[in-house]
User: Fold these one by one.
Assistant:
Number 1:
Amino acid sequence: MPIAGVEQPQIIQIDDALRLSRFDGDYAFALPWYRNEETVYLVDGNREIYDLRKLRNMYRYLQERGELYFIQLLQDGKYVAIGDVTFWRDDMPIVIDTPYRNRGIGKKVVAALVRRAVELGYDCIYVNDIYDYNIGSQKCFVSAGFVPVEKTNNGRRYKLTLR
C-alpha cells in the first residue's frame, strides 16, 4: 500500500528523458539488477543475489511502505526501466543499474522526490541507512541537502529538513 491517504502519481516526469513510473506489479525484468553482487552489497550489505521469489518479496515489502517507482530513461524513443526507488517519509531506497550510475540520474530522482515531499507537506524526510562503504549514495543524498543524523550498525541515517 502506498502512503496512507495519498494518491500516488502514475508518472513523475523529471526531465525530457527521465521519469518515475508507478510500480505496476511487473518486475521480472529487474532481476538482473539484483543478481549483481556489487549492487546487492550496496543495498543489502551482503552478496546474496536475488531470485524471483526474493525480488517479489522485496517489492511487496517496499510497496507496503511507500510509493514504489521504476526509474525510466528515454532511449530510442522508448522509456526503459533502469532502476527503482521507493519513497516514504522515513526512507528512500534507490537502486540504479550499473551502466547508469555516476551519470547524475540518482541526484535527479532524489530531487524529484524531495519536491514530492514538499508537495505532501512533510517537514523532513529520511534515508534510513546508507552503509559507510556506499560512497555514491552518500554523495547523492548529501548533494541534495541530507545530513547524517545517527550512526547505524553499518552506516548512517540521513535527514533532510524541508521547513
Number 2:
Amino acid sequence: MSFKQVTENDFKKEVLEAKKPVLVDFNADWCPPCQMMAKVVHELAEASDDYDIVSVNIDESPALAAEYQVSSIPCFVAFRDGKEVERQVGMKPRTVIARMVEQ
C-alpha cells in the first residue's frame, strides 16, 4: 500500500522514476467531487502493493497541473515507466480507476 501527497519537489522521484505503476490524483481541497473520490483513492491505495497512488493538490502545485494540462478535476493520470498511459477526468466508478493501475 502506498498513498502520499507529492509536489513539484518530489514528483519526478515518486512518479516518473517509480519502479511500479503510479496513479496520480490531481485534486483540490475545495472540490466536492475530489472529496467524494478521495475515499475510492484511499481504498485503492490499501488494496495492493503492485502500484502506488499519489495526490497532487493543484493549488499547492500549479506548475504540475499546467505541465500535465490538468484543466478539470478530479483528474486521474496513470503512469508506467515514467510515461502517461491513461487519463480519466471527473467522478468515475472504482472499477474504472482501479483498471488504470491494475493492468
Number 3:
Amino acid sequence: MKTYLPKVEYSDRKWHLIDADGLVVGRLAVQIADILRGKNKPIFTPHIDAGDFVVVINADKVRFSGQKEYNKFYMTYSGWYSGDKYKSVSEVREKHPERIITHAVKGMLPHNRLGRAMLKKLKVYAGPDHPHGTQNPELLQVDA
C-alpha cells in the first residue's frame, strides 16, 4: 500500500476572524497555531503547509492567567555584548499589543522555514477594525 500525500490547493484556504477580547493568551495561541498548521483539517501532514489564514482583532484586550501580567517579561537581543533588553507585559501592551499574540503563536509553530511561512498567515490588530473585509472571514468562536 502506498502512502497518501495530499495536494494542497492554495485556493482552498479559508479566512477566520477571532475576537480576542477577554481571552487568555496561551489558550488562544494554541487554537490559532492549530489553524495555521492545518491540524483542524483531515489532510493534515506535518511537512505541508495546509493551514488557513487567521485575523485576530482586539489584541489589546487579551488577558493572562495567574500572575503573568506582572511577572512576565519579553526579551530582545541585539547581538551585541550586553545588548539584551527586557520589557514587561504592560510596556508591550502600550506600544505594540499585537506582539503579545504573535510572540505566543510563534513559539507554538515549527522553528524552520515552514513555521515562518505559517506565521505570515497570521494577521493581528489591536483594535476592532481590520482591512481584510473583502476576504469575508468567518467569525470563529474560541473556547477559553
Number 4:
Amino acid sequence: MDIFDFALQMEKDGRKFYQDAAARCGDKGLQAVFNLLADAEQEHYDLLKSMKKGTAPTTTLTDVLDGTKNLFQQMAERGHALDPKATQTDLYKKGLEIENRSRAFYEEKAGEVKGKDQAALLRTLAAEEGRHADILTNIIEFVSRPRQYLENAEWSGLGR
C-alpha cells in the first residue's frame, strides 16, 4: 500500500471515529466539536485524493481550533459541567492517540516523498493533526475538571 492509500484510509477512519464520537456524546457542544473534526478529516481526505490524482491541492490550515475555542468558551459561560464517565474519557483519549499517530505518520512521510508540493501538504496535514490533538487534550481536561475539583474540594477541609 502506498503512502496515499494508507493516508486516505487513515483520514476516512478518522472521520468515522469523530462521527461516532459525536453520536455517542450527550453534550451538544462536544457534538459540534466532533462534527468539526469529522469535517476537517474529510477535507484532509479530499486534499490527499486530489494529490494522488496529480492535482496540486491548496495547503491551508482550517479554522477548526478557532471554532472549538469558541464552543468551549460558550460551554464554560453557561456553567456547564460534563459527566466525566470513564467510557467518554477513554473515547477522547483514543482520539488523542489517533491524532498523535497521524501527526507522526505525516511528519515521517514528508521527509520521504520526493516532490516539494507533496512534502508541504504532508507537513500541513501533520500540523492539522497536531491542532486536533490540542483540541482533544482540551476536551479531556474539560471533562476531567469537574472530577478534579470535587476531589480537591473533598480533601481541602472545606466540608468541615
